[in-house]
Each structure stands twice: as structure tokens, then as C-alpha cells.
Amino acid sequence: MNEIKVFSPATVANVACGFDVLGFCLDSVGDEMVIRKIEQKGIFISHIEGYDLPYKAELNVAGVSALAMYEALDVDFGFEIEIYKNIKPGSGIGSSAASAVGSVFGMNELIGKPFNKTQLTEFAIKGEALASKCEHADNLAPALFGGFTLVKSVSPLKIVNIPSPDGLYATIIHPQIEIKTSESRAILPKEVPLNKAIEQWANLGSLVHALHSNDYELIGESLNDVIIEPYRSQLIPEFNNIKAAALKAGALGVGISGSGPSIFSLCKDLDTANAIKNAMQAVYNKTDIDFDIHVSPINTQGVKILK
Ligand code: HSE
Question: Are 25 and 146 contacting, i.e. CB atoms less than 8 angstroms apart?
Fold first, then answer.
């Protein structure tokens, strides 16, 4: 096999109470990438569609993660990468993570899978860091492993897979404004009050338990972010109205997806997810801001081969 096409999914990081550690994988939106073995040594990006991104591998997220993996290989051939980008950069649903994951996953498949998913995450972290100026894996891990993941530590990298109820659906609204991860990290406080930290880790612990025990009520009670949301929500138009409308339509909980501007909600079934979609739409229809909405079950597979 000299060529492979992969689907690299969008992801929701933080999941309200798990800043930089928790994430889950989406099904209905993602990038496609073609990775090809070529005679010339090195990593080459030969085609990009969808968004205007750099072709030079050292400047492209998919290229940087590919180079990190390539340096760990001793091969007398190279790789060419085509990127069909569907996830808008700066959308808050793991655009850079999808790019970083797709290239290393595809290369690994082409050479007989010498690396496990944790090792692929290590390479992908290098690409993600190009975009966010910081090494974190809360989008990368769910994109590679699927489902919900908890990044127990980055150094050494330890990823924990968390099960989730079968019926869980996400509705995500993406207002068409760009918030750069590096900028939305820069506005965060460097220290947090102890009482807020206590609330946050209690929520994270109970959310993980609720996902294990299919406890929808506890999922809802745990989806609260008392540390990051007060700062970042100010960058997102209509955030409080979207949250209120989604909760009224049956959402278990609502939060900022990754570093924003996307807003995610989780609910028990597809009908409720569609009702939340309508409620969110109604809020933004009253503004002049364009938006996309995605309804998706939790993708338990993660990045996958298309052909
Ligand atoms: N945990 C990251 C953040 C996700 O919220 O900044 C976005 O890359």
C-alpha cells in the first residue's frame, strides 16, 4: 500500500470542567487527508483545499507532526500529504488537532503501524503546539482514540479512555468569527482561587464518574466551568443566550468548545439534539452573525481509514 485516505475528526476539548485535559470526538465533521509514500526523502504538502494554509511542512500543523514522526523513522523514502480541510481554523472544534493527527495516523498505517496511538499523540503534539503555542493533547487524544479521553499527564504522556452512554449526542454551534487559541489562552488568569479550583475538580471527577455510570443527571450537574468560561465567554457573542436556550431545549449542559468561539451542548438523544439545534439557531438568527451547526453522536472510533 503506497497511498491512504483518512478521515480526521473534529473534537470538543475541555468539556466545560476539564480545561486542557478532557475531550470528546465528533462524527459528523472532520478533515480528509491523502498520504502517499514517495521516492524523494522528506515531508511534502502537495495540495490543500478548503482554507488558505501554508504548504511548507515546517509551517503547517500537519507537516510539523509528520516531520516529528519522520525524524523518528529511518527510511529511504518520503511522504506527500494532501489536505482537504473542512474544519475551519480557529473554530474551537479541534481544527489543528485534526490536521496534526491525520498526517501521522496515515503515515503510520502506510508503514505497518510501528507506533501506538500514544506515540502518535506525542508526534501530533508538536503540530498542535505550532497553532496554540503550547503543548496540550485534549483535542489530539479524542481525535486519535475516539470517545471521551482524559489526558492524565503530558510529560510523560498518559491518556485514559473514558466510556460514555450510547445515546449521548452533541450539538455544536460555530459562529463565524475566529478566535485564535493562543489569544484566548493569553486572557486567562495564571492563578485561580482555591474555592473555584475545588468546585472545578469536583465537577471533573463527577463528570468522569457519570460517564462511566451512564448517569445523565450527574453529567448535567457536572458540566460547569467556573474558571475559564467567565473569561472566554466574553469573546463569544450571545453566549449566555445560547446557553439558556439550549438548556431550555433539553441540554444536559452547555459550554465553550475548546478555546471557542464554538459552543457545545450534550444531551440524551437525537431528537433533543435537533431541538437544541433549533433553539441555538433561533438565537443567532436574530443577529447578523453567520454560523454553522453540527449535530453528532460521540465518535468512539476516532481517526479512520477511508480507503
Ligand atoms: N484546551 C485548549 C484550550 C483547547 O482551551 O486552550 C484548544 O486548543
Answer: yes
Task: Find the radius of gyration of the CA atoms of the chain.
Answer: 19
Residue 54 preceded by cis peptide, ω within 30: no
Q: What is the pLDDT of residue 133?
A: 74
> Ligand 1 centre from 54 Cα, in Å?
22
Half-sphere exposure of 219 (CA within 13 A, CB side): 25
Q: Which domains does the chain have, with CATH numbers?
A: 3-163+301-306 (3.30.230.10), 169-297 (3.30.70.890)
Counting from 1 in the atom list of ligand 1, the atom nearest the Cα of 97 is: 8
Q: Which DSSP string corresponds to 14-56? A: STTT-TTTEEEEEEEEEEEEEEEEESSSEEEEEEEESS----S
Burial pattern 196-221, b for ≥16 Cβ within 10 A else e, equals eeebbeebbebbbebbeeebbebbbe
Classify the phi-psi angles of 127: left when phi > 0, otherwise alpha if psi is within -120 to 50, otherwise beta: alpha
* pLDDT tens profile 189-226: 999 999 999 999 999 999 999 999 999 999 999 999 99
Which DSSP letter does residue 226 get?
S
Decide if 11 is catalytic: no
One-letter amino acid identity for 105?
A: F
Is residue 232 in contact with ligand 1, taking CB distance under 6 Å? no
Question: pLDDT tens digit string along 22-72?
Answer: 999 999 899 999 999 999 999 999 999 999 999 999 999 999 999 999 999
Q: How far apart are CA 304 and CA 183, in angstroms?
A: 31
DSSP classification of residue 218: H
128 is catalytic: yes
Residue 233 CB neighbours (<10 A): 18
| C-alpha to C-alpha distance for 215 and 227, rounded to whole angstroms | 24
